[in-house]
Write a structure and sequence with these properties.
alpha/beta; 2 domains; seven-stranded parallel sheet; globular; binds nicotinamide-adenine-dinucleotide
Length: 258
């Protein structure tokens, strides 16, 4: 089993959903955790603390490079350096391209793609100095294939996989790896909103909307869970994954196998 005792993990967007699931898995393995996000911060803090991990929180808005720099400085001040960087924070907006709000486009690109560039560029020097590091970018099946009405999200997630591959190559001769995880549907606040919108638009129940959502794309017709994604992220931090470099690893109930 991977031990992360003495290591520090920064998980962006970890006050709910997938980020919180990953933070829990890394905390179970002994890592110090820096949380970030706009969700219920105390609840997330308690979930990590009850696993015996040291935990801190910083509320940076990752659409802004200055706030990202403040978050990275804070993490280094609290624990020395970031050994494990999980770029997870993300948002979604669903609309046809011709009516897609340009402000939403900018926000999605800033958070889902550019934020990862900034955290990586700021984290790598200390990883190089310490001779070890793990970077895991939470992309999506939408980094591998597209869906309608999600132009910004699909563009950002494809970009995030490109960023992952480039960084992995630059670091290929070091003990620092960079990989992406590509989840299918996971029942988190981000997806709950899409289910609610679909139910309202079609005048159907939440349950019907949820079934429809899964049937369209996810052959298993079951949601992937944050805990399962936490285990995959934990694997990628371990020594067995030392030569997994530049991968875009889907966990998607069969979505992209179709
Ligand atoms: P979520 O809404 O539960 O989590 C998103 C997190 O990002 C929250 O902590 C939120 O507060 C934080 N956040 C939002 N805006 C922020 C900002 N400006 N600055 C800092 N933090 C901010 O959603 P989730 O489904 O757990 O999403 C996590 C990641 O997983 C996202 O990158 C998402 O694109 C990706 N993903 C989700 C699914 C899914 O089905 N839920 C599938 C594939 C990929």
């Amino acid at each position: 089993m991977t031990s992360l005792v003495g290591k520090t993990a920064l998980v962006t967007g970890s006050t709910s959903g997938i980020g919180l699931g990953i933070a829990c898995a890394l905390a179970e393995a002994g890592a110090n955790i820096v949380l970030n996000g706009f969700g219920p911060e105390q609840e997330a803090h308690d979930k990590i603390a009850e696993r015996g991990a040291q935990v801190r929180y910083h509320g940076a808005d990752l659409r802004h490079p200055g706030e990202i720099a403040a978050l990275m400085t804070y993490a280094a001040q609290q624990f020395g350096a970031v050994d494990i960087l999980i770029n997870n924070a993300g948002i979604q907006h669903v609309a046809p391209v011709e009516t897609f709000d340009p402000g939403k486009w900018d926000d999605i690109l800033a958070l889902n793609l550019s934020a990862a560039f900034h955290t990586i560029r700021l984290a790598v020097p200390a990883m190089r100095e310490r001779g070890w590091g793990r970077i895991v970018n939470i992309a999506s099946v939408h980094g591998l294939v597209a869906s309608v009405n999600k132009t910004a999200y699909v563009a950002a997630k494809h970009g995030l996989i490109g960023l992952t591959k480039s960084v992995a190559l630059e670091l290929a001769q070091t003990n620092i790896t960079c990989n992406a995880i590509c989840p299918g549907w996971v029942l988190t606040p981000l997806v709950a909103k899409q289910i609610a919108d679909r139910a309202a638009a079609q005048g159907i129940s939440q349950e019907q909307a949820q079934t429809q959502l899964l049937q369209e794309k996810q052959p298993s017709q079951r949601f992937v869970t944050p805990a399962q994604l936490g285990e995959l992220a934990l694997f990628l931090t371990g020594e067995a994954a030392a030569e997994v470099r530049g991968a875009a690893w889907n966990m998607d109930g069969g979505w992209v196998a179709q």
